[in-house]
Amino acid sequence: MHRAEMIMAIALMALSSVFMIMATDLPIGWVRGSGPGGGAFPFWLSAIMFVSAAFILIRELRKRLTRQQALRHFIDSVALLDIGLVVGALLITIGLMHVVGTYIALPLFLAFYLRVMGQHGWLLTAAIALITPVVVFLFFEVTLRILLPKGITEPLFYPLYAFFF
Amino acid sequence: MLTSLRTQAAAAACALAVAVTAPSAQAADWEPHKPIEMVIMAGQGGGADRLARFFQSLIQKHDLTNMPVLPVNKGGGSGAEALRYMKDNAGDAHKVMATLNSYYTTPLRQDIGVDIETFTPIARMAVDTFVLWVNADSDIHTLDEFVTAVKEADGSWKMGGTGTGQEDSLVTAMLEQEFGIKFTYVPFDGGGTVAKNLVGGHIDSTVNNPSEQLPFFRAGKSRPIATFTEARLEPLPDVPTMTELGHDLTYGMQRSFVGAPGMPADAQQYYIDLFTKVSESEEWQEYAASEALDTKLLTGDALQEYFLKERATHAKILGIN
Amino acid sequence: MEMLAHLADGFALSLSPLNLMVITLGVTIGLFVGAMPGLGSVNGVAILLPLTFLVPPASAIMFLGALYYGAMYGGAISSILLGIPGASTAVATTFDGRPMAQQGKAGLALIAAAVGSFVGGTISVILFTLFAQPLADIALAFGPAEEFALVLLAFTTFVGLGGDDVAKTIVMIAFGLVLSTVGLDLISGQPRLIFFDLPGFYSGISFLVLAIGVYGIGEILWTLETTRGRAQVMTARIGVKDLWTGIKLLRHSLRTMTVGSLLGFFVGLLPAAGATPASLMSYGMAKTFSKKPETFGKGAIDGVVAPETANNAASTGSLMPMLTLGIPGSPTTALLLGGMVMWGLMPGPMLFIEEPDFVWGLISSLYTANAFAVIVNLALIPLFVYALRMPLSILAAMVIVLCIVGGYAPDQRLHDVWLIAAFGIGGYLLRKLHYPLAPLVLALVLGPLMEKAFRQALIAAQGDAMTFIERPLSATFLVVAGLFLLLPLAQAIRHRKTPTEPANGSAGA
Lengths: 165, 321, 509
What we know:
The structure holds three protein chains of three kinds. Chain A is mainly alpha-helical.
């Protein structure tokens, strides 16, 4: 916990430094006669963020830990595996949306999540993985007319468009 | 190069034919087989957005397409986002973009790697006009009084307008150059907000479009000084043009549709036909008249020529060569 | 008297069979669109605007108005059930709505939200009927300086110092405000903070993307860790009797509702502000003046009633500058305005004189829409609550799908979905380390308004910062804002609270 706290403070300091450097593309000072320049808000707010994060870091460094506190983990290995799997699946799903589109990526994600994470039966998994995309299509594309990304599967939808629109 | 010239020539010929004959007589060979995306170069709720959605609703009302037209706002970075999006979708026949003047000013002001010459021109639907306005409580009635007052204010005269680099700021820059005066330019995020700030007395003058100020004008809360048009405007018959007053200041905001670079020629023709029909609709003509819009239609090559000329003019106003 | 006659005519119009049908339909669609995380009234109105050409203009605007109302009610549903605010106006509803749902009181929270919305909407419509025209000028008195002061006030009513770890709160506020500056700088017309030169950053970072990320994905990851993915979520159930008990319980919240309605209506009148600052201020007021302020953030019923009353009151209030001045207070009202213009109605000072039938038809339809919205909403509550009884592993998968699709839908950019994933992971880690997330989200909502108004005011005053103090309205707001900032601090000093490490479960807000 103690180490995670320090790593996060350092990460936030690094992030705010990047913001500060990027903000200097525009004037960060007080422009005479018109108030702060375009870079002033992001720059000085990032500076505040940097200072506060540095304060947190110093506070952690000076903290005297009891033995028990020092041994407390940020996360245990079981939870780490669960969360790693979900995050991985999420990122792969979004990546797949670019290539094979929403209607392949979402069922795959649902199938993985329900079967592997939730350990539900095949029947339930299949039912949800197949019904959800249909509902999504009917609600978003047919009712609200918002097209979701389809990637290379786009031509497969031409007959559906012709039917619904 | 040769083929593209030829297709453009063919498109121009067709455009001419469409313009001459009745629009219903001709049907393009191409038809969309998926919904048409209408990319809007501005955020939701602004003037450009409202107009684009108006066109969409006219298309839907008269059932002019077999597939729905779906508006999508990509207003980021003064339209930079929309321009990049169209460029990345080169050759796509199912995307049209509703443009405004940032179509040329944004690529001029920032290096976003987009050359509008490569885009496919479809149709210019309207040109919006600009008028110089002051609050009705002010004692300024003529352009000369206005110029004197601005000079007396010595740079502290507050001119309100849309974001820096957008149309209002260009018109303001033109005024500064012509009269050798200096304003304090206060940018707001939309024409409606600008109009309200004038009526509320938070700024001293604006160059609002007529549609933004007319309701206040009718209620006697704002006063037009001069128009930036070639001829007087129908809803404001008593307001002189800048040209009449001896100043060569005209400026218009075009509202057009373009396709992605490399849109197939038959698709381009389809959209030209489509927007020609929209342009001829009674609702559009009525609406345009009430908003003091110039509805002269330009399509295909004639439009491209217009774009390039306007781009050169804007480069000059912006001081880029 | 003349007004009553007008109103009676208006009711005759809005209660015609066609219009009643249109209103019911609008309310129901709005409810579902609003309940989707990511989609709010602006999407609903934008998408359905063209469809309204099928009916006469008066019916069309009633349909859109009903949709607007329905979506405002619906926004609370995802805030309470999933903890994901469906729109910025519903952020404050998550603070207590979510904890209530976690305690198995989802039904009560939904009832409180619905009844609060109804009361807020109704009081606001009555004020609207009485004072629409005379109050229009208030909106005009608001310049950039006043807008800045008001937004600052909204911010401080909620984020008083004290409570959470101060250093961490400041980090999060600054972080949120920096994120709000990404994109185009309106004042100079220059792009800034375009990370990796991605075009998606040109339009800035939408509040929804951050909210769906930290409250949607982040929440799922958090739940996954705390429950090991196997526990049942909540055992909420609700019957007709519970509905009635719930409504009766709300008589204790009458004062909160009254304050919320008035506050919402007046803040809603101001063009730039709208419903989000109104809901935050109402929440802050309810907490400050509550007899039990310590229950706020842990499932206080008044914490749901206050923002919901105010945001509905404000959405009614914000119709007024749109109708009487032609100034939209929010993207949604801008679209409604666009719709009116298309039908040949010119909003502005003359509308009440030139088109009385239309105006009073619309006003009366607001009464009707509000009544229908509360009925439809209450009727559907059992259904929504039932959805929560799904096993967590199914619910979590569904929520992730909703986050992906709902995050993509508003602007149709996969870029936003990647950001949601990044914010989800980052938000989960921050939350584990007790960084408060609400200030981060609020800073992103209010940041753009604040910076813009601040700089506009300074430009107009030739860079003279005294403008904020010299203008009476803005000075008043600033003083009140200062009080709100210092009040919790003073209380903290008086109570001499020893700084304790927050317990694991209390990070729910």
